[in-house]
Amino acid sequence: MTTEHRRNWSIGLGAAFLMATSAVGPGFLTQTTVFTQSLTASFGFVILVSILLDIGIQLNIWRIIAVSGKRAQEISNTLLPGLGLFISFLIVLGGFAFNIGNVAGAGLGLNVLFGLSVENGAVITAILAIGIFLLKEAGKIMDRFAQIMGAIMIILIIYVAIVAEPPVAEAAYRTFWPQQIDQIAIVTLVGGTVGGYITFAGGHRLLDAGIQGKSVLPQVTMSAISGIGLASIIRVFLFLAALGVISQGLTLDAENPPASVFKLAAGRIGYALFGIVMFAAAITSVVGSAYTSVSFVKSFHPALFKYQNILVIGFILISTLIFISIGRPVKLLILAGALNGLILPITLATMLIAAYQSKIIGNYKHPIWLTLFGWLIVLLMAYMGGFTLVNQLGDLWG
């Protein structure tokens, strides 16, 4: 393997971890435990369906971005002037909303570990995240940081899942023969794993590192699948940990479901492990959200591109200040989560149309099976996303 190939594979792995750790935030941890509590072993089916949809989404989008050498907003504007600006607005707005929750989650993790106030923990988190983008090799350091934090989360969650002694056979059976199917759970998982800014975290990171063109498609494909695989490993073992606790007849704390899973499974040590996992999940999501959201606006003007790290730092600072001043805006977070289910079919449909525009992708031939799978996902997510949004808006104001 040549030096260039090793570099490409290394960057691809970094992009995969950036995507995965961007997906695994406080909301990811909470969603998984809450849905396990309501669906029990049948939640395995929801995870399976979401993984298949996630792979179809990422393979389509990452390949088209890599071949075109353009970011999603640039592709969108080429198709229809102004569309890229509209999509960027939606994604940055959602990124801000979720980043406030990410900052809060990291503060909670430090509160569990060291007894700090959540607000002080949020400030420390912001300082650490900003520190990454003040360094000269910010991109490489961000990749390595995501890899280390991701590995920590995987190891600790697997440990808790083993200690919880879940009914693995039942979980495996219900993954293929569920007792109930919850489409809201499917939309929430897909939106939370590859919705909004997360869809483009890895693809844009590859472009920033100079990974583009048809020749690198094998690395791009492997990176996309690896990103989904990493996030799915965390999801599956967290599901098994929660299922193990629930199967013992224990009740999760409604105020903090994921924390109670760790505590009930492994006692005080488990609660400390939750603090580490929550902090790792949240701070990597802070970094990923800020980096990817800024990647959607920096191409609109050369000055923005030049000062992208400053924009990322500003993004993190504003998110932190909003959390400290007004707390976590629950309604905004709920609505932003539902909107992800609608943003996804818009962005995916745009990429699929672009895949057949020679002015964007040149002489590249996008696989027919990926196109058909992609359009099926667009239709499913548009229908289920609309249904979910209507239901959540009804719950929010009804």
UniProtKB/TrEMBL annotation:
Subcellular location: Membrane
Topology of this chain in the membrane: Multi-pass membrane protein
GO biological process: iron ion transmembrane transport
UniProt xrefs under InterPro entries: NRAMP_fam
UniProt-listed Pfam families: Nramp
Alphabetically ordered keywords of this record: Membrane, Transmembrane, Transmembrane helix
Recorded GO MF terms: cadmium ion transmembrane transporter activity; manganese ion transmembrane transporter activity
Domain of life assignment: Bacteria
Membrane-spanning intervals of the chain: 9-29, 35-57, 78-100, 112-133, 145-164, 184-203, 224-249, 269-292, 304-326, 332-356, 368-390
Cellular component annotations (GO), alphabetically ordered: plasma membrane
Protein name: Divalent metal cation transporter
Source organism per UniProt: Rhodocytophaga rosea
